[in-house]
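Following up on my earlier thread - several people asked me to post the actual chain instead of describing it. Fair enough. Here it is, all 633 residues.
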Amino acid sequence: MTERKFSVLAELANDLASPKVLPALFTGAINGTLLVLISVSFAAMIFSGDMAGFATRGAGLTLFGTGVMGVAVLLLSGIKCNVAITQDAPTATLVAATPIAATLLQHSGEAAFMTLTAILFLSSLVTGIAYLLIGRYQLANLFRFVPFPVVGGFLAGSGCLLIHGGIGVICGLTPTLGNLHLFLSPEMLWKGVPGLVFALLLFILMQRYPHYLFLPMALVAGVAGYYSAFALSGRPLEAFRKSGLLISGVPDGGLWPVFSFDSLAAIHWELVFRHTPLALTVALISTLGMLLNTSGIEVAAAEDIDLNREFKTLGAANLVAGLGGSLPGYSALSLTMLGVKTGAVTRLCGVVSTTMVCSVLFIGGWLLTWFPTPLLGSLLVLLGLFFFWDWLVLTVTKMPFLDYLLILFITLTIVWKGFLPGVAVGMAATLMIFVFRFSRVSPIHAVFDLRQRHSRKQRSVPDRHLLAMEGESALGFELTGYLFFGSASAFVEQVRGRLADPVRLLFLDFRRVTGFDISADNNFQRLLQITAKAGIHTFLSHCPPALEQSLCRQGEGLLAWPAKDLESALERGGRTAAGQSPRASRPGWRRPAQRPFRCRRRRNDAAPGAAGMVRIAGGKGLRLWPDPLLRPG
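Reply from S.P.:
Thanks for posting it. Predicted structure:
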């Protein structure tokens, strides 16, 4: 840990002497302002309704958690410009606990506040433990298998929601289908058009001139432009603050400490522990959010990220933040990418933003109230435009058509229903596309008959002649890969088409098969039923034990011969093919009576005394049927 601190300090010292300082200061200041505003708004969500009187104290809880997470990612994260914050998804879930805690108001307001705070503590504790376990046991890689179109759709959907949210910040009203007419009013146009034009111009110019000084200079020009307009209007600044053009709602004084140790006695722990299922749900949602955001940062920033390290870092941060009654949190995709897009990939961003959060927590945020609100919204719209352009415009010509449609579909679902439904629908659609594509991959490695491939056993000249003439009546398949319901079903239909030819022997070699599912098992039973009805002998070489046992348990009258390898199957099949030929009716051959025998245990090959027996799966065991023709002993 000490070595890590010194390496971070050395890195910060190097960055202070680099051109990254100026963009880092501006980006960190913007991120710090957004962190404060978002944290305060989350507190207002939790402490709402009858609990609204505790919203200011609740802001102290969320700001404490954001500050702790900022320090953690600053010192321990592998992402240099990483920004972590208490998040919206767990906040929206924890709102369900507010009415229950409010029932305690009739007894004591402090009891209601502290009980709700304890529920937040429990949720952060469970989330932190889950993160630490994932990171400690290297389980994060199990979650990395998120398909690329799902990540692309997630980023494109994030861009659309950032644009939507940015417009709401600029205008002071979130756009919906029901209030679109309000945005055409002169007041809304006066508030909204300058901010949107500013964001659009920034986007176009930054695409053309990607210099690290461009955004800081544009922000200075934007602030100067707004204050020039304020001065020309002749109205006092308080009037603009009331109209939403300047930031408001930030606490003037310090907010920490929020509670004392004596306040812990007011907690109703039985009510807290009743919310354990809710805490587990929050931990699951937070884990998914952490995975998606970190994967999105990795793809969008083209950077290799150690997910296990990030989980351990934020796991420890959530544990400490939970002790202060904070909400759970994780990396913020949009705020982290702001540093990437502005060329401020340095921990200096975290130093500035975390310092601002801690200053508001312990001193107050009066300085933030001088920043024009529409400029914050413009930056959100700008970042949303970057995501939209990268993942919905540039990918049109770079991705297969079906994958692009999937990205578009996920984006629309996220905009309509939210992140979790969008990602869930995207995963389901991706799996369906995967099954469709993978089922078109043939499991057949090679096709042969007894003329092309036969056993190494020395045979007489008449037998070799018969095999040459009758070898085409034997059909063999070497299978490969993993057999599942899609590929197995397609294979069975392909074999059925080949059985229209005069086939009397079928060879199935499983040496290259890596596994199979229950549907493939069922398809092979169906195939053996078809071949049995047609009087075709089937030889299964290298048959997986699980498949053989399943056929033995479930099959009824399946004419099959399990062989230890393809050589054994070819030897038995070659003798059967030669003996079954009409030309084989010569002295020295005889047909035995068809008497069934029962085999109680599995054998890879027939016993010496049953050298001419064909094993048939049926009933509770394997049946041995006499081979059609036997050589005389």
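The longest helix spans residues 109-136. That should answer part of your original question.
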